[in-house]
Specification:
Number of helices: 0
Shape: elongated
Strand content: 25-35%
Distance between the termini: 17 Å
Number of strands: 2
Largest sheet: 2 strands, antiparallel
Order of helices and strands: EE
């Protein structure tokens, strides 16, 4: 199981042929590994990755962190 907190960023650019290209970027503020259902432990990934420059960046993890004490809300808009 995984807990991710972040946002979606939308942008558009013009390609070489004059067409419009649309982009959706997923920006992660926090990512925590919660472990398998029924126990199984699970450390914290912690930290978020910030993309800079070109698209397709990666996750830049931080040190270990404690998982949240409560389950995240299930009323997400997606």
């Amino acid at each position: 199981r995984l807990y991710i907190e972040g946002r979606l960023d939308y942008s558009q650019t013009q390609d070489d042929q004059g067409g419009t290209r649309y982009w959706t970027d997923i920006v992660v503020n926090e990512m925590i590994m919660l472990g398998a259902p029924g126990g199984g432990g699970g450390g914290g990934g912690g930290g978020g990755g910030a993309q800079s420059g070109s698209r397709g960046g990666g996750y830049q993890g931080g040190g270990a962190s404690e998982p949240p004490l409560t389950e995240p809300d299930d009323d997400l808009p997606f």
